[in-house]
């Protein structure tokens, strides 16, 4: 089976600074793939490349084996099947839950009128499917707690029903209970056959929810492990550099 | 959606504890219109007790008529502020729209054509504001203030300071006639108000504008075409300023160089802010703007009729403006939880 999302030899420079060099990653449908690494390892740049905010200077991004070309905005990445939940969540506080969940993709009727009823129904359905309670869909997002906001942001990505979901630090600001709730949602997304990619600092969370983990260090891929075949110590070692990087495939060394 | 929707009860999925948080005070604060209408009633009662003329049909009509100019401008300015922008050039665009239209009328153009041309000229100014803000990265207040000064100069240059006269009857009827006893200008204002209400509350564009003003980064992250929204907002703000200028010139029967200016700009923005539109963007309603505009002309009118010296007018308006913005801040801190 071709990976749902594949990064092959991706490099990115900002001026003379190399942010990423030769990053490789294969994420499969029905799996949760975690990307971990220390600060400055290149996690954010990797996300931005997948989300279509940055373009790689070298290498390829493949979705279902097809190269993702000419992606230059979040809207085009979404069109190619990638839904992103940003770390800052990209929610508008003064709009309610239903509006936020439909942002960028608001349903219309008669050509120009906003179909509010459908928008609210869809929002309520998605939240029900995720088995979460964040209150009335007309509640302004500004009133929600951090965990509820995270849920709304994830629900928005779910609503777009893309095969690939990318979550940037989904538990960074959350308490224990809220983290568990987001973990449940991620498990359910995997069960529904999506390729879920999470970027996280939280190794406990990664080990309890991910199937594979890719470690980045100083802009390079250290290696990818199945969570069942590795332990925390090894992953921490890969993050800190105590465990040496896996040998990289030939064609990418050349570039 | 406006904050008001949050307080309505809907039997939708599990109502959270949030709905209980709506205290009576919050509800009142959340609806700035209600507070303003109370202020109006107080001022109205005071004026009515001091002057028997105040409640006469003629005077009530006059209050509404004099609010038309503020309101039409404030619709565009308000939409722009909700979308996170600001337009200080409105007063000069007001004059430019009026002068361009009047000039063409004097040259013999048919009035619909002259109006369209006047609006078109000002839409170009809207585009200029947009370009300076977006591509030269000048903050909106400074960019549009610059436009204001330059246009004021140009307005004076092209007319040599003289009024443009005489205007055809057909054109003057727009500002002076009436249909079934309701003045034409009031009808135009109602039409403009309905159009803007529809745009803001019932279309995708309106939601996108709120999203843009509420959190620009989120708007970008969700794939909204923010540049397109920006250009539309600056053009709309310029068009309403021009339309207000055109209505004004039809009412007074001349294209006056002195018609617009600083006070016109400030009155429009004041009506917007008093009406509960947040300077921080995202929040505000057309209903609120309408109440703000009527309140401005009501204060004006009441002070004249009760023969209170006109200096008090500015004092009262200034105080209300400060209160309105302070209430906006209080309101935001009540409805937004700190994460």
Task: Describe the structure in your own words.
The complex is a heterodimer of chains A (255) and B (339). Chain A is of the alpha/beta class and 255 residues long. Chain A folds into 2 domains: 173 residues, P-loop containing nucleotide triphosphate hydrolases (Rossmann fold), CATH 3.40.50.300; 70 residues, no CATH class. In chain A, 34% of the residues lie in helices and 26% in strands. Chain A contains 9 helices and 12 strands. In chain A, the strands form 3 sheets. A 6-stranded mixed beta sheet of chain A has the order 6-9-10-3-11-12, sandwiched between helices. In chain A, strands 2-1-4-5 form a 4-stranded antiparallel beta sheet, covered by helices on one side. In chain A, a hairpin with a 2-residue loop joins β1 and β2. Chain A starts with a strand and ends with a helix. Chain B has a two-stranded antiparallel sheet with strand order 1-2. The relative contact order of chain B is 0.19. In chain B, β1 and β2 form a beta hairpin. Chain B is mostly helical and 339 residues long. Chain B is 73% helix and 1% strand. Chain B has 15 helices and 2 strands. The interface between A and B is large, with 42 and 40 residues.
What is the chains' assembly state?
A: heterodimer
Q: What is the total number of structural domains of chain A?
A: 2
Q: What is the count of β-strands of chain A? A: 12
Percent range for helical residues of chain A?
Answer: 25-40%
Strand coverage percent of chain A:
25-35%
Number of helices of chain B: 15
What's the order of the H and E elements of chain B?
Answer: HHHHHHHHEEHHHHHHH
Side by side, the strands of the main sheet of chain B go 1-2
Q: What is the string of SSEs of chain A from the N terminus onward?
A: EEEHEEHEHEEHHEHEHEEHH
* Head-to-tail CA distance between termini of chain B: 21 Å
- Given helix and strand content, the structural type of chain A is alpha/beta
What does the main sheet of chain B amount to? Answer: 2 strands, antiparallel
Helix run count of chain A: 9
pLDDT below 50 for ≥5 consecutive residues: which ranges of chain B?
1-20
The residue-averaged pLDDT of chain B reads 87
CATH topology of the largest domain in chain A: Rossmann fold
Tell me the CATH architecture of the largest domain in chain A.
3-Layer(aba) Sandwich
Give the integer mean of the pLDDT values of chain A.
87
Count of strand segments of chain B: 2
Instruction: Give the largest interface.
Output: A-B, 42 and 40 residues
**Radius of gyration of chain B, in angstroms, nearest whole number:** 21 Å
